[in-house]
Amino acid sequence: MDYTSRRRGQGGLFEGLYRVIMRRNSVYVTFVIAGAFLGERAVDYGVHRLWEYNNVGKRYEDIPVLGQRQSEE
């Protein structure tokens, strides 16, 4: 058995992805929309954490006098 016949029998990563995801249009569109939503959430979370890490002590909530609301009595 040579390399090309083994390769055709097993398939590769891209052939597997094609068979699972891209063969039907409805599955492909669902995959793209879900990926975009999850990717946006991950980037938003990461950027928010990075911004908070870089601005510790400089935020409005970190200033003792400004961050506290006075109770109305």
Automatic annotation (TrEMBL):
One of its GO terms (cellular component) is respiratory chain complex III. InterPro entries: QCR9, QCR9_sf. GO terms for biological process: mitochondrial electron transport, ubiquinol to cytochrome c. It is a single-pass membrane protein. Its main location: mitochondrion. Component of the ubiquinol-cytochrome c oxidoreductase, a multisubunit transmembrane complex that is part of the mitochondrial electron transport chain which drives oxidative phosphorylation. The complex plays an important role in the uptake of multiple carbon sources present in different host niches. This is Complex III subunit 9. It comes from Gossypium australe.
